[in-house]
Design goal:
CATH class: Alpha Beta
Structural class: alpha/beta
Order of helices and strands: HEHEHEHEHEE
Radius of gyration: 14 Å
CATH superfamily: RbsD-like domain
Number of domains: 1
CATH topology: RbsD-like fold
Largest sheet: 6 strands, mixed
Number of helices: 5
């Protein structure tokens, strides 16, 4: 255990988050997402796991991971098939975690299911959560950490 680091963040996840650079995508997926097969196509090439709810995993990750401020799709959710404007409770919980991490309302765009799969395959890595509710799948684009003087 380390001070100041959320205990959900295991060594493999910490290494991946540290290795990622500006513009790289991170996928946080529910238990129904084809995480293993998609993860094999990512830059990292292997699946990472954190067995907790999607909101808890997002909270832990965003405690260290800066979101990209140069794009409008730094936070994204998989939209419900046939109901792109519906936002289920799992996505509302994650939106609250994003807003809390950023200290302000932060827009989360929706991505059609198959387009989300495509973005996921091009991502740096996939973290599969223990989330069993449907549509607990999210993409986060990494931003930058400014110098201390700024």
């Amino acid at each position: 255990m380390l001070k100041g680091i959320n205990p959900l963040l295991n060594a493999d996840v910490l290494q991946a988050l540290r290795a990622m650079g500006h513009g790289d995508d991170l996928i946080i997926a529910d238990t129904n997402f084809p995480s293993d097969s998609v993860a094999r196509q990512t830059v990292l090439g292997k699946l990472l796991r954190i067995d907790a709810s999607a909101a808890d995993v997002v909270k832990a990750v965003l405690s260290l991971y800066p979101l990209d401020t140069f794009v409008n799709d730094a936070a994204a959710r998989m939209e419900i098939v046939g109901k792109p404007n519906d936002i289920p409770p799992v996505q509302k919980e994650v939106q609250k975690a994003i807003d809390a991490a950023e200290g302000k309302p932060w827009p989360m765009i929706s991505i059609e299911r198959y387009a989300f799969y495509e973005r996921s395959r091009k991502a740096y890595c996939v973290i599969q959560t223990g989330e069993r509710r449907f549509y607990g799948c999210f993409a986060f684009r990494k931003g930058v950490v400014p110098p201390d003087a700024e």
